[in-house]
Queue: 3 jobs
Job 1
Amino acid sequence: MHIEPKERAQRMIENYAARLRAGQATRRRDGLTRAQAERYAVAVARTKWIRAETGAVLAAAGLPMIVRPFYYSFALKLGRLDRNAWSERAKWEEGQILVQTWASRGLRREVMYRIAEKLFNLSLGRSEMASCLEKRQE
């Protein structure tokens, strides 16, 4: 009988739930640890999806493995922007700041723009947002 090893994400979720039950992880004040564990599971799944989709973009761009963790970090930061209930303009402005920051660290703008567009439907290209802002001002 062969037992399949658990997926890493599933082990992380189970370990977090066990730490909550044991009081080793910070609990919510209302004591709803089951809901807390469920939200953690959703976050793990979302992170896994972001990493997989980012990996596909990076593979298509032909980037070497050694730089991929930096693009993953950029994508996760964009994910935080997308998750917050901000206006589209605020998301675009914060996204531009992220692009500037990561470009100064050596990441390629066109790849970051592609990640933002494909994963979060966020157009960070200057010409695209300029036309959007002009339409709003009219």
Job 2
Amino acid sequence: MSNHEARPGVSIHPTAIVDPQARIGAGTRIWHWTQVREGVVIGAESIIGKGCYLDAGVQIGSRVKLQSNISVFHGVTIEDGVFVGPHVCFTNDKAPRAINPDGTLKAATDWTLSSTLIRYGASLGANATIVCGVTVGRFAMVGAGAVVTRDVPDHGLVMGNPARLIGYVCACGQRLPGEALRPGDPPEQRICPACGRETWVRADQVL
């Protein structure tokens, strides 16, 4: 029995490579030329697009959408309902080197892992870079091409290089009225002009 046939309820394209030790929830679809390594956990009803690489031990929730050509490296956790746009880049080492000071090749264990957490419902725009060690908050939105170097608050909208907080977005995806709060400002309640949902926003806290 092939690896693909051994996973009832999961759709895996014939060109994909899925390690037998990966755990994949029902209804998940894995598309062309994607590699899923050992220890990966993917929840139910997720979509893993063309040409993705899921490194060993990566944790991905349910109803997640990974678009094409995304590498998710060891130490990255993606919670339920996250959207990751095409060509998003994750990292996991803050001081990467190929060699030691004496010129010898670094071993697989000769570095320090910096973990990254993408929380429930967040969206990462195309070509964004998520520098390791940060948390992107619930329903936050990262603009296309942004370079995220520090935590993004829940519902925060960040853009630029380095990414800066410029406002907030509703759970429905529409921008909330008002400017970004400054560190030390008290939380504020914002009302979405599109759906009417009330949302509490903060300057620099991830709940």
Job 3
Amino acid sequence: MKRIALMAVALVVMFAMAVASASAAKIVIKGPAPFTASSGLSKLSTEGLPEIECKTSSASGTLTSATKGEVLVTFHECATEGKKCGNVSAGTIQTKPLDTTVGWINKAKGEAGVDFIGKTGEKTNGSEAEFECEGLAVKVKGSVIGKSTPTNVMATEGKVTLVGKNGKQEIEKFEGGLKDTLITEASLLPGSELPSAQNQTATETFTPIEAKKGTKTVFLPDNVELNTVNNPATPEQGRCQKAKHAKYTDSNCSVIAAEKNGVKKGKYEFEPIS
């Protein structure tokens, strides 16, 4: 009898675990994707001006749609030629709120990136940041494109890499788009608009999502990806999640499933952020 009782208890526990697992599997994450970001050394190089270096940066932002987002970046321990640069405090520079847009860097190779531009004005009139370096006034305008990695991989982290030197950015425009460059105005050279380049690698970490599991509140990792397969017209920010009769066979939504009698045989669907 004791053995039968133990087996009964085990079956109840297994059933409870199966129900809990099924309940968790049904949680579908939707909506915007908030994130934080950080980087090591960042450099702003401008033709005709001394280079500005910041030892680290931090940021917070949100992916708000399939192609758009917003972010605010703070650079720490910034200086040029021994002079501290800042607008929050000496050595600390904070950008104005920035809009982000994803696009193709090289569509044939599946390379995608993100363009950063200030919310407060047009590319030629607005500024991304304004600060002083112990008497030297600096205004950075325009926009800058970084390469996003990885693509087509669901993950809680991603990287954006900006590469440039001597006032020239490696990636200056998206395929089929207008030229996007940074421009710096400095009181050292009044009235001049000088081409600039940003050199930096930032790691984005997506914020866990609060959800209900029965009566309990749980925090689920928010796995997000930049997908280059779902929409040939543009890369898309979103999440690959389990679904019946879905478009994709894999959990990264990168392999399109075959159809039989008009019914999709995949197990995963890509949900663009909205």
